[in-house]
Amino acid sequence: MPGGCSRGPAAGDGRLRLARLALVLLGWVSSSSPTSSASSFSSSAPFLASAVSAQLPLPDQCPALCECSEAARTVKCVNRNLTEVPTDLPPYVRNLFLTGNQLAVLPAGAFARRPPLAELAALNLSGSRLDEVRAGAFEHLPSLRQLDLSHNPLADLSPFAFSGSNASVSAPSPLVELILNHIVPPEDERQNRSFEGMVVAALLAGRALQGLHRLELASNHFLYLPRDVLAQLPSLRHLDLSNNSLVSLTYVSFRNLTHLESLHLEDNALKVLHNGTVAELQGLPHIRVFLDNNPWVCDCHMVDMVTWLKETEVVQGKDRLTCAYPEKMRNRVLLELNSADLDCDPILPPSLQTSYVFLGIVLALIGAIFLLVLYLNRKGIKKWMHNIRDACRDHMEGYHYRYEINADPRLTNLSSNSDV
């Protein structure tokens, strides 16, 4: 590789042979002049040793199964089925690719070395089957600016993964870009806790990521964003929340993200942007918002959002936004709607209609069974009704007799005398 110095055993053996040849020549010259041999060797040995140490790489300079380029300050250990981070990484590495491996667990101090990897600025661990990242996994990397953990089923992401094992005393993280796309684990590996909560705890612990400029959380099946999740990330410029399942942004505040330049909300389940969210986005001076492929519900609650879309220029591709519900509004362009088009008719979605139909069928079946029971017991019910009628008639006749006596004074006196 021209100028790239992809180091391998051949280059090291060649330099080693040259060094040995120099030592042999030096010994031959020293033996030809015995009187000056000691002084000549003693004066030349330090120079030769320093030259050899400066030119020869250490045997472990490039880890096995990896490709190294000192000129590009890059080490690639890609698709090598590594189960742990190589211990013999060269100290000059600035860009480290450990993608497509079988790392499983990233322990505390996984990159601690002597001498330290002081120049490592970009670390890519995507697609390496990581399911656990422990506290302090990225400690001792003072220059780390970009970290990619995408496409790893992270069932256990420590709250102190990015802030250090002791967030109360650790310095702020140097991270500027954090890429966490598609890190959702399988359902049976979530350890009975909220995946959203686990990720947010790692982002907010110790306020270590206040200098973060780019955060990507795409394709993680997020149903919601916890309250104040962005309040401690004031330096964000790019936020990617695309391809999730976000239904609402009601509890998310963008007010403090004054530097935010791009917000990706494509391919979610957003129905409408409410007034509070619209006002906050409108107040950000450099923002560009992407809202494609959301199932917008075009009813009376959409009036303010449609008005905002017609006035603002921050929404990219706003002419492509269309209604998904109700059925009569499907595929209509939001920018072409008027307030008269946006009403709240009591039109139920198909799933709710199906539920009510099923409920009606159940109630009808119960009614039919009740009528059948009445029919089968009609004789007993008829006898019971006759008994009730006779009892009521006797009771009413007694009341009628007492009423007649009380109404006629003669009968009242007669009744009194007979009592005497």
Please write out the topology.
Elements: H1 9-32, H2 37-55, E1 67-69, E2 74-76, E3 95-97, E4 105-106, E5 122-124, E6 132-133, E7 146-148, E8 156-157, E9 177-179, H3 195-204, E10 214-216, E11 238-240, E12 262-264, H4 275-282, E13 288-290, E14 296-297, H5 303-311, E15 315-316, E16 323-325, H6 350-376, H7 378-407, H8 409-419
Parallel strand pairs: 2-3, 3-5, 4-6, 5-7, 6-8, 7-9, 9-10, 10-11, 11-12, 12-13, 13-15, 14-16
Antiparallel strand pairs: 1-2
What can be said about this structure in brief?
This protein is of the alpha/beta class. It has helices spanning 9-32, 37-55, 195-204, 275-282, 303-311, 350-376, 378-407, 409-419; strands at 67-69, 74-76, 95-97, 105-106, 122-124, 132-133, 146-148, 156-157, 177-179, 214-216, 238-240, 262-264, 288-290, 296-297, 315-316, 323-325. The model is unreliable at 1-16 and 23-57 (pLDDT under 50).
Tell me what the structure shows.
The protein has 420 residues and is an alpha/beta fold. It has two domains: 275 residues, Leucine-rich repeat, LRR (right-handed beta-alpha superhelix), CATH 3.80.10; 43 residues. It is 33% helix and 10% strand. The chain is built from eight helices and 16 strands. Strands 1-2-3-5-7-9-10-11-12-13-15 form an eleven-stranded mixed beta sheet, with no helix packed on it. β12, α4 and β13 form a beta-alpha-beta unit. α1 runs antiparallel to α2. The longest helix has 30 residues. It is elongated, with a radius of gyration of 41 Å. The chain starts with 8 loop residues before the first helix and ends with a helix. The N terminus is likely disordered.
